[in-house]
Amino acid sequence: MSATADKTLAVALVGAVLQRNDRHVLDHVDLSIGRGEIVTVIGPNGAGKSTLIRAVLGLERLDAGEVRRAPGLTVAYLPQRYQLDPALPLSVRRVLTLTHTAPEARLKAALDELGVGQLLDVSALRLSGGELQRVMLARALLREPDLLVLDEPTQNVDAAGALEIYQIIARQRARTGCAVLLVSHDLNVVMAATDRVYCLNGHICCSGKPADVGRERAFVDLFGAAAAKTLAPYTHHHDHVHGPDGAPHPHHHH
Fold first, then answer.
1. Residues whose CB falls within 8 Å of the CB of residue 109, separated by 6 or more in sequence, listed in order
2. Can you name the residues that pair with 208 across neighbouring β-strands?
3. pLDDT by residue (tens digit) across 30-84?
4. Alpha-helix residue ranges (DSSP H) falling in 57-186
5. I need a labelling partner for 183 at 20 to 30 A (CA). Which of 84, 196, 205, 247 fits?
């Protein structure tokens, strides 16, 4: 890459290496996210997904390689776990405004967008896992970030809720042109809203459009054929012909 700044880039990892006790958690990882692009990283447990996110956010020091960030990039991060202090019974309103203030109408609109508008003055400790997840996502969206980073945003949420959360993320992208980096194991979601997907297992095994990645041998090896079918559902390989009765017959190669 030339030294000139890429105007369309939000953030990139270039040759990122991160070691822990002689083990490569990230092994020469190259990953880029363009402005307005939704990128999902998937991988098995222990693949380094959360570490990769922390590297992108500048929370982990790389042993080699670099993080490139667009100048002045505002980032909102929804971590996989957040502990609410039971000794501090904060209202949802306080949770939303801990880091920056916003007029009441904006707070309400952000919660409404996530279907939890009625929770503004409820104690956050009384929320269900799914409700809290939505409140934390609303809080991230309130920042109007250039880059939205979400670690497993659909945990604690049922399938319908998961789909809704992805639609909300897609709407936010459409409305603000923000870039989105997701870590998710939910492949239906990857299909629904992702422009590009990276499969991580310490290193990047494969990457590309979801349907293309689903056809990659590395993907099948890592996630299995059922997962591949989820990502590339409509591939019908003609290694057979249909006979007059409609039944498939093997091709005979002469």
1. none
2. 197
3. 999 999 999 999 888 778 888 899 999 999 899 999 999 999 999 999 887 777 7
4. 92-97, 104-113, 129-142, 159-176
5. 84
